[in-house]
Amino acid sequence: MQAVKEGAIRHGDIVSVYFDSHAHRRRCIDAAAAEWPSRPIRFVVPFPAGGSTDVAARVVGDYLSRVFGQQIVVENKSGANGNIGIEYAAKSLPDGYTVLIATDAVSSNPHVYKMSFDPLQELLPVIELSHQPIALAAHPSLGVTTLAELTTLAKKQPGLRFATGSGAGSLQAMVALWYASLAGITLEQVPYRGGGPAINDLIAGHVQLGSLGTTPLLPHYTAGTLYLLAQSMAARSPSLPNVPTFQEAGISGLVVDQRIGVFVPKGTSRNIAERLNSEINAALRDDNVRKSFADQAQEAAGGTAEQYARLVREDSEKYARLVKELNVKVE
User: Fold this and answer.
1) What pTM was estimated for this model as a whole?
2) How many CB atoms are located within 10 Å of the residue 187 CB?
3) In this structure, are residues 191 and 45 in contact, taking their beta carbons and an 8 Å threshold?
4) Domains of the chain from N-terminus onward
5) pLDDT tens digit sequence for 23-42
6) Cα–Cα distance for residue pair 10/147, rounded to 1 Å
7) What is the pairing mode between strands 160-164 and 98-103?
8) Which residues neighbour 99 within 8 Å (Cβ) at sequence distance 6 or greater?
9) 124-163, pLDDT tens digit by residue?
């Protein structure tokens, strides 16, 4: 056996150095977590301002700014049906200062897009902020006020276009295509980068049908400038008591919620994730916060990280099935 030269670094030394370094890094992370937050926190929203996700992030962010004594900065990083912002957050340092506020695009996108990362593996669910229905909205110029009237029109005019605030494979798209499949009609999606831009074209009549989260639709529905034909949850949203569910409108089996939740990069300290969960749960019990959500046709949720993680997994399984059944593809 060859003798080890004087001054040579042995394998055991390397292992020892590695574990000493790893332990030091862990101690530094734990120390930073104990002081968290000591500077502003970024809420990454993967869609433009004005949509459901952006509104939810700002409502909760305002509350947490006061609790933490640190500013919550909302950053809208939109594009690729949310994938740009989702990947940005997933690849950020797991130090508690980058937090993702996202829809169930986290669960659905991997079944539609070729992605260089797996959001379900690289993000940790923290809490469900809210849920709301997807609603089918019609511009008055389309000449329909009920889902039955739309079905009749679509059979005469195959390929009616509908706006979404997100891309192919999004829940908004799948709800409209799911309805079309069950009703025996064909519809064509017109994707926008967010609910705000989609609403602008819908109000202007450039596109006469929309499948969107209810937050950007509510003021226009209240003003009478849009008709809401159906909503996707099992029961009517308290904010939309006069809008029938798809099931009530005769589309049996079409039941789905759009969830908005909080995620942090994998590797984030458990203490930070638990603190976020605790403080956001407190926010969601606050009367003013709950009213702000209700005013935007969203229902405050809350719960444990484990409960939300289970919902995220269940949603992923559901969207995998829908993408296959509806033959959803990205051009």
Assistant:
1) 0.84
2) 21
3) no
4) 33-131+259-325 (3.40.190.150), 134-231 (3.40.190.10)
5) 655 555 555 677 899 999 99
6) 75
7) unpaired
8) 41, 42, 43, 44, 89, 126, 262, 263, 264, 276
9) 999 999 999 999 999 999 999 999 999 999 999 999 999 9
